[in-house]
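Q: Hi! First time asking for a complex rather than a single chain. Here are the components, and I think there are two in total. Is that enough to go on?
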Amino acid sequence: MIMKWVQVDTQRAYEQIREKIITLQLVPGAMINEQQLAEAIDMGASPVREALKLLAHDDLVSITSRHGLYVADINIPDLEQLSEMRLSLESLCARLAAQRADADDVAVLDALRQEQAAVSPEDSRRLLDLDHKFHQALVAAAKNKYMARTLEHFFGLSKRLWYMALPYLDFLPRAVAEHIDLVTAIKKKDAAGAEQIMHGHVKGFYDSVRKVLETQV
Amino acid sequence: MKRKLDTSNNSHTALVLGIDTGGTYTDGMLMEYHSRRVLATHKSITTKRDLSIGIESVIEGIHIENPAAIEMVSISTTLATNAIAEGKGKRVALLLIGYDPDLISSFKMESSFATPHYYYFAGGHDLYGREKQPLDLQAILAQVNTIKHAVDAIAVSSYFSPLNPEHENRLYKVLAGVCDLPVVLGHQLSTKLGSVERATTAALNASLLAVLQDFVIAVRRAMEGRRIDAPLMVVRGDGTLMSDEFATQTPVETIHSGPAASAIGGRFLSRLDDALVVDIGGTTTDFALIQDGQVAVSEEGATVDGYKTAVKAANLFSIALGGDSQISIDHEGRLTIGPERVVPLAYLAHQYPQVRDRLKTLSKRSRSHATPDRLEYWFVLREPRDYSLLETNREKALIDLLSVGPRPVPEILKTLDLLHVAQIGAENLLRREIIGKAGLTPTDLMHIEERYVSWDAEAASLAFDIFCRFQFKEQTELRRQVWSRITEAIVHAIITFLSGKTLPLSASPADNNIGRWFFYNSLYAIHPQLETRFRLRQPIIGIGAPAGIILKDVAAKLHTDLILPEHHQVANAVGAVAGSVMVSEEILVYPRMSAEGLEAIGYYVQTSDGRLTFEAIDDALDHARTLSNERALGAALRSGADNPQVVIEEQSDGLDTYRVQARAMGNPRLGGKE
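A: Yes, that's all I need. Here is the structure of the assembled complex.
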């Protein structure tokens, strides 16, 4: 979300509510009471209202004219649509990154990969954060601002899925291994290789989440 | 302390609310912008640990008929200055790129960076913007990885980054990729070439980001609580205004904004274009100069708490003497006023009526029982939220004792079974404003003389009575001494400020020093033959509630006029709305050297985000003018200026290097609509 000229209080409300939605403290599908939410994060009513509008833009909040505000629900059809987009876009992203990454991009990817390897597998929150940064770094390396904006939108939605799947899954070590392969491919400027690894990486993630969602529903 | 002045409304009013948070008081003032009419004022006590408390109470307390009609709120604040002085800024890692550690240490400059976490890395550019060394990203990333969980923000300053910010910009992208900390770049805050000041400015700015954000959010929340929907402005250290958005990005620019606002307010109310502004507050007295209708700005960057920055600020001078300075007699029987600020006894008795009764009893006792430390009261300012924060049992005992009500020091000692005040060990509690000190102050004397009556004049009178009896002083004589000592200190400060020369007054006036002799002879006409005098050519504009009382004599000694404009008591708050919205954009033009570095083969036009190449200097300067003009104009509009006008100045920095500065200024756009 690019919010350079959004009021500072709106920005803070946005970040805090977004965090609550992504980490499932605000349950998918739950109704939102603006006033209670404002009290919970110790902010005024109008920045909270503005923040909710921005979150509706992010597809993390749904606004219906009849029933008011809800935390966006998570369902299988939604998941399929999201995974279709991420699969094709992120594969392209990995291809472009392999072609266009400069030394600074590689340094960031390397640093993230090393940090990820050093984090304990139990520290899932930090691993999730590093995974997110890794994907963002690839987007930066691909050097396409429209793709960056679109993927940033999808990352926000995917992050919430990951939180949901987290207690049931053990794909983190595998994800770390795939990241290492990706960095290697990008260093070798192997566009086809990078694309293929990324495709498998994203597909693996969605397959796992789908299983969780199907058993839960 | 509410005063309703005039609330008659005409149909074309534009209401603006100005707020100044000083060290002692937070002042608010409601004004009709076009007619400059002050409609209401309000004064609250400043809570230093959280300045937004005083602001909230001003916004809640000031008389406003229709809050929805307010079209701008503007604030000057000591927040940045306080946070730095009290070490309340956030933890910052400072990355120094291309700096020479040996050079820094040979000048003993390590302590000037305003953070203990500074690190040197290879990189940086030279005087012609050429890469001095490649940027050592591996080392930086390794370092950042080890410290990123121990700091709250990162500041980056690269050698000669105003000429070529490439390394800073690259680092920004890289750091944003590996951590979520806010990153401040030196070249965005200063285009001056001084590398140490730029690093210090970046580090201070980084440490203040969250502090100012919290503040702006608290103020906006208080505004919303009163249904005030208007743009919020913050005063810079040079008295100009910036939008709250800009302020949260460049909080370091708010350093000294309080005194600057006072000076602007003094000028605005008096309509004088050349004058000396003297602002008498509770804790300090501040001096600033108005020249050609503008607050005189210091050529050097602002210094705060000993840190030298590259921030432009008003040329200010300040002494630790104000209405609430403690009056005491030292061991050698000399009268001292300040530097410590205490709560006036008149105010303490107003808050706690039992204090007056105690003073009454005391005034009837014989001299041996009434010592002057009986006048020094301690009291609880706020209950500690958590008793575990109290470090010692004695601190706990003291809080328990004072929670019942204020107690004079001898009683505290007796109850805690101690002999000397130093044994109490209360410095920590005083510093953290858990307890406070009250004592005899000039404000009390003003109550006695009925020149300023807000609180308990009888308590002040009783206290002064006890004070004089112990000191074997006659009351009128001691009062005269206090006032003349204050006059002397302020005259001395004015002379020091304007002349830039120093003259210690500690020694006896009868010594051989001709400077001191001249000073005292000019004030007191001591010599039978020689008459000397200081004469200030410009009038003095007095600001602050006690200004009328204290500055009359000062003006007389300097043979000038004292101007006390109407509402001078809240000129600081007036100044918060009286400034112009200003945005400045600087572009550097410097030679592009041939590969051997022997001759210039063209010129670079360097902006914060790009560099263009020109063959001829004239084309380069033309382009720099156009570009700086466009950028300043756009930023001023975004920052809330109404019809901003741009002034472009060019300055040569030597070595064929030019600084093109565009300053876009305009009145604040009321109501926030373009």
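A: DSSP finds 21 helices and 30 strands in chain B. Let me know if you'd like any chain examined more closely.
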